[in-house]
Amino acid sequence: MKPGGGSGGGRPVQGRQRVKTARNRSAQSTRWLERQLNDPYVRRAKAEGYRSRAAYKLLELDERFGFLKGARRVVDLGIAPGGWTQVVRRRVPGAAVVGIDLLPVDPIDGATIFEMDFMSDEAPARLMEALGGAPDLVLSDMAANTVGHPQTDALRTMGLVEAAHAFAIEVLRPGGAFVAKVFAGGADAAFVAEMKRNFATVKHAKPPASRKGSVEWFVVAQGFKGRPSAGEPAAEG
Ligand SMILES: C[S@@+](CC[C@H](N)C(=O)[O-])C[C@H]1O[C@@H](n2cnc3c(N)ncnc32)[C@H](O)[C@@H]1O
User: Fold this and answer.
1) pLDDT digits over 192-227, tens only?
2) Which domain holds residue 115?
3) Which parts of the chain are coiled coil (predicted)?
């Protein structure tokens, strides 16, 4: 998602960094670079040793909802480059984390990381084998690569979220939580109703670190009701 390269070369103009347009840099990547240079969360992430500004979205969500406290086993879907897992490890140092991403990720102490597609048949079993027990928390920051067509992008990302939710309700321990990135127009009523059948509370949130212009929102589902035992009907609404 990071277009272009370049060393920056910005000069301050009225407190804002401006970037000279280089011949080999597109207007889009110049804008991206300018935004990065002027983003306080990017600076903070650098200063505090987080690999991504996304780390602050999880920190802010946790400040509001408190799902990290006491977590012992955590799954991080779409882990790269690793900001969310760093937050988990710093907040709850004893927690074991397993993560998965299409992209390679540099090692993180206390985390087992798979470079594979979460949508592949074998992914759920590989994650669970590595975790060695039911998680208290399933995180998903997965987003499909955007194609620029808003409806298509929302649908593709919602496909990932729904797969993450299906996995979460299959593996979570009762009382556990599911936190996932959704698109504003994407978490449709039927999906929210399905989550509400499975969790005591389901809330939508847009943490301050999530850029105002982006359509990204998060869903925080807490108090997993558990799977019905054999012969028992599924929980109602
Ligand atoms: C916004 S980034 C995650 C940032 C991360 N939470 C952090 O703090 O560093 C979304 C990630 O989802 C991954 N992703 C998208 N589709 C995936 C899939 N099918 N399986 C695994 N990872 C996927 C992308 O490769 C990308 O790295």
Assistant:
1) 999 999 999 999 999 999 998 888 899 999 999 998
2) 55-224
3) none
